[in-house]
Each structure stands twice: as structure tokens, then as C-alpha cells.
From TrEMBL:
This is Integron integrase IntIPac. GO terms for biological process: DNA integration. Residues 4-87 form the Core-binding (CB) domain. One of its GO terms (molecular function) is DNA binding. Keywords: DNA integration, DNA-binding.
Amino acid sequence: METPRLPRLLDQVRERCRVKHYSLRTEHAYVHWIRRFIVFHGKRHPREMGAPEVEAFLSHLAVHENVAPSTQNQALAAILFLYREVLGTDLPWLDGVTRAKKPPRVPVVLTREEVRALLARLDGVHWLLASLDVRVGVAADGGFASAGQGRGPGTARDHGARG
């Protein structure tokens, strides 16, 4: 007599996502990352793999595919879901993972001369909006005194704005 076959692994993942009422988008994302994890390791079954293979995959994403930290975290969440919820095993803490780095956020700051040159090329509503934006930025930096100099009603550089 033949024993009934278990559903395929990714079908088990889908079923477990539905039992836990995960959104369809989460289900698709988890299946995607689990499939990539399995293919990355030559289609080995995850039961045959453990923390070193998970670390290798996540590090590969960060180092060779240059993924964003949130993307790497999503892949990690999918793999942890696979091991905890579908396979029923816990992975030891993954200390050897190379974490994806957030790119530094460098603000774009124009010199006073660059701001003056930019504003000199604008007129009408465009000048008004850009001028207000610059003044708000200067005021936010504590430069209230310089924010109101040289522009406004009655000055030579009024450009017809009223305020």
C-alpha cells in the first residue's frame, strides 16, 4: 500500500501563509525568496541545509546583488518562516550574515550664490514657490534674520509678488 505524498514544499508554504492569514502579496514574496534560496543552493531541500546556507544566501544578496537592507530583511523573514512554520525547526542565531548597508543620505545644499543664480532665472509663480521654499529652509536652520532680507513687497527684487 502506498503512503500519501506530502504536498510540495512551496505548496506547503502557501498553505501555511493562508492558515496564518498572511496577505497574498506576503505569500508571493515568501514563495519567491524561498524559491531563490533553494535554487541558490543547487535545488537542495531546505531540510538538508541550515544556518550556514542561510547566512551564505543572505550575504550573497548583500554583497553580490547589492540589495537594500529591507530587501535582505524580507528574504530573511521568508526563510525563517519556512524553517519555523513549515519545517518546524528553529535556526540558530545568524551571526555570520553580511548585512546590507543603507546608502548614506547626503543632503543637497546649495551655496548662497547658487541659490541667488537659481532664483534669478525664475519668475512669477515659479519664483514665488522656490523663494518660499528657500526661506522656509533658511528659517528652519535658525536664520530668521537673513530669511527676510532683499525680497518682498517694495524691494527691487520683488518680482511682483505680494505677501
